[in-house]
């Protein structure tokens, strides 16, 4: 049987418990000390060793050490030191509980940090796309008065309904907006590049190509001009695809082989890089929109649905609390959603829609427990009185984001 790193890491607590317990006994025994475990003294060196072992590896390592200790105590002392053993057992249980809650807190903080980093990178990507969309609209407004952001928003919406249609729509954007005549997207799977999408004629991947090797090594988009004159490459540009929410790890590569000469410039290819990375990260989100009731998929934005699913998963796996506030006002108050949007944090999300003569405004407060949501409500109440001349009657509900969040939303907007 092959010893893998995973198997070794599981066996390490047992090995350390065995080594340290027997090592302590042998070492002290060599000095001819009769009271090996210093039972008659006010403190025992072995207790410190046992606490360190339990705090580092957890309760299981401490209990294994105690099991090894039982026959040693029976052999060393004429009468089994019951009081001493019960005392160190209680301290081991205490240290094991501390290890459990400490690791649980570390996991929560790690998940929260990863979520915030992912949000920051996603916001950065969306801001860059907004600028690219504005520039593209200025350049081509008379010929093609449709912004890149509008096209990508439609792709994002399609991802919640039909993945294949979304991929097809994005291929059309690459062909008609970025003028890619021949290019292929390869994704890493089991440490091998697998073809995922082709635009025009498929482009084969050659791992020994100098431009591809350098782009993967540097982790950035490179052009044919980046290779030396003596090097021979088959590609005009190579664009690494990275996952924004996981420390920018490489997940694939786009190989550009044919593009009109007048579009083969740094600005255009970098814009293509941003769009490709945006699309991959939308596609690669570990969310399943089929879990969401069809009614809510029609009413809520893809961004709101995605964040709700991610936070629902965080609640389940790491017990991280988030909240959702649902406001309901008569549909005559059309400015209410805009009023709310001006009073939220950068990481909060707002979605609104009209239904049955009312405007429903949903505010997602990531990493905020219900108590924080209540404070948010109080602040909104004060601002409503100060901002609007007339009294606005609104109904609100606060829900924790957990496994029943979509059921609760459905009930609130029935």
This entry's quaternary arrangement is single chain
Give the CATH topology of the largest domain.
Answer: Beta-Lactamase
Classification by helices and strands: alpha+beta
The low-confidence parts are 140-146
Instruction: Summarize the helix and strand pattern as letters.
Output: HHHHHHEEHEEEHHHEHEEHEH
CATH class of the largest domain: Alpha Beta
- Report on the biggest sheet: 5 strands, antiparallel
Strand order of the largest sheet: 2-1-5-4-3
CATH structural architecture of the largest domain:
2-Layer Sandwich
Counting DSSP E segments of at least 2 residues, the number of strands comes to 9
Q: Tell me the domain tally.
A: 3
CATH homologous superfamily assignment of the largest domain: GAF domain
Radius of gyration: 30 Å
**Fraction of residues in β-strands:** 15-25%
Number of helices: 13
Report the end-to-end length measured between terminal Cα atoms.
58 Å
* Overall 3D shape: flat
Average pLDDT value?
83
Structure notes:
With 414 residues, the protein is of the alpha+beta class. It folds into 3 domains: 5-106, no CATH class; 146-284, GAF domain (Beta-Lactamase); 293-412, Alpha-Beta Plaits. Helix content is 54%, strand content 16%. The chain has 13 helices and 9 strands. It has helices at residues 5-30, 45-57, 59-76, 82-140, 148-159, 163-176, 210-218, 266-284, 294-299, 302-318, 336-341, 370-387, 405-412, and strands spanning 182-189, 192-200, 222-223, 237-243, 249-258, 323-330, 349-355, 358-365, 395-400. Helix 1 (5-30) packs antiparallel against helix 2. Mean pLDDT is 83; it is low at 140-146.
